[in-house]
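We close this part of the discussion by returning to an individual protein. Part of our work consisted of pairing the sequence of a single chain with a tokenised description of its backbone. What the numbers capture is local backbone geometry rather than side-chain detail. The amino acid sequence and the backbone structure tokens for this protein are reproduced below.
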Amino acid sequence: MRTPEQKQQLFAIRLSLTVGILMLGIKWYAFSITGSSAILSDAAESVVHIVGVGFAVFSLWLSLQPADASHPYGHDKISYFSAGAEGGLIVLAAFYIIYVSVQRLFVGIEISNLDTGTYFTFGASVINLFLGGFLVWKGKKTKSLILIANGKHVLTDSWTSFGVVAGLVLTLITGWLPFDPIVAILAALNILWSGGKLIRQSAGGLMDEGNTELRDSIIKVLANETLALGLKYHQLRYRESGNSIWIEFHLLFPQGTLLDDAHKKATEIESTIKKSLNTSVNIVTHLEPLEKHDELHAEIHN
């Protein structure tokens, strides 16, 4: 049974795919009637977007599947593969745009119906601006890395389109045709930067890179709760796994504490941490004695 947040995520990613197909049709039509390198760069970005969002649809579906025998920690990590794949496709599109634009600068530039093509490209830019903003907002609201990555890709597509429109307007005003491939190259460099950031984010997630803000939030709650209960903690570790967070730490209890009491206090601390983070959190707590803690460990390791 899907939760309301999961249903919202699935709706948003399917909307992105539907609108992406529509945008692809508009941009390729604009390119077909103009032959503009700048519009080609925009259309190529949309092709990448369609492939990327198609993978994102599958990734989101898989990430929502429950843990099983072959994946006891669930399938959330697919989110990072999705973001990395989308980033890689963006980078490939950027290199293709640069190649075509440089070639046209040397071989020759032929453009027609530029005013009509500009209108279509501007309309697609506005639609993508609203779609990208919606996807990022919904992704942050539902804690979905896949939606956030896809939304940022759509926003990049939108800003690229606005840059293309600016170049087309300059070409219309001045009549200087090289403006068209030059703007396409600048748009490609922006796309390249965006794709690189997505790949970097994906690699960080797959390598369980630390998040300073998340760490500080966990430590703040742990410090307050253990101080109030007269306990101590150590060995804090955490990792983000797409749509969820995994946390583990050791709680040190005074000598003579009953197991029932220790378990109750540990559960209270875990509950407080989960509420403070307001997302899917899995916590493993190891209970240890406060007195002679180091001596016990030394005996075991010896």
